[in-house]
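Hi R.,

Here's the chain you asked about this morning:
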Amino acid sequence: MTTAPSTHDETVARGANRTRVAAIVLLVLAWGSTFAAVKIGLDGAPPVLFGGMRSVLGGGLMTLLALWRSGPPRLRETWPAYVVLTLLNVVLFFTLQTLAILELPSGLAAVLIYLQPVLTGVLAVPLLGESMTRLKLLGLLLGFAGIVVVSAGALQGHVSVLGVGYAVVGALVWALGTIAFKRYAGQVDAWWAVAVPFLVGGIVLCVGGGAVEGTSIDWSGRFVAAFVYASIVGTAMSWSLWFGLVGAGEAGRAASYIFFVPLVSLVIGGLLLHESLGLSLLVGAALVILGVYLVNRRGRGAVG
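And here is the predicted structure, written out as tokens:
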């Protein structure tokens, strides 16, 4: 009689664990496949305008979710935080990310942009007071070694130097945005901290991109599919999965698998877009991915 409740609890726990694992897999696939979708979408629209359109649609859906989950935002008291988050995580990052995808193979752009966890781990030391572990330091060194290898390929004419610059600066901006997100965590609701920047920042990008680039869009079926996918799957669904994992206490576990995202992007870019990468780019990508993995591992021993 005493074993039945225990067996039931174990079954429920196993079911919940399978659900969380499935959510992590979906999150990695969603973020990893979005780079190819953006690459396809850029065939039909100017880069900044496309980034803004994607952000507005995804942000609109996230706004509905935020209203449902958290009620209205407290903009009057917390508007400075939203300004910083909008500028870093959308206006600057989306612009740099989209330009990087325009200039580079989508998989390579993903690898360089996902240097962000390495940079976040380093910046968190002086800005948030977090410790620098040996694994974080090793991950940082490997990540930058990967950038050097990729940049060497760029200097040989194998890939756009400008694209590499967009991606690396984009990773730095995203890292700063992540630090800001952590710093403002006690002031703004997590759902609104994503929904407001996506919606407002997307409008800014649409207006700015439309004014500078023009508004010529090829509304082909291929473009619409890529736009909808990047907006809904790559933005609204993926961030909803992320916050679901955070709410279930799985943020650390999900972060430890983030190094799979650029790997998925490389595979999808090769399969769908027939993107080929030379040996130096593959070696550089491997170093960056390994660096991200080490930064997200829980290591012992702080440096210094």
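One quick note: The CA atoms of residues 101 and 109 lie 6 Å apart.

Cheers,
M.
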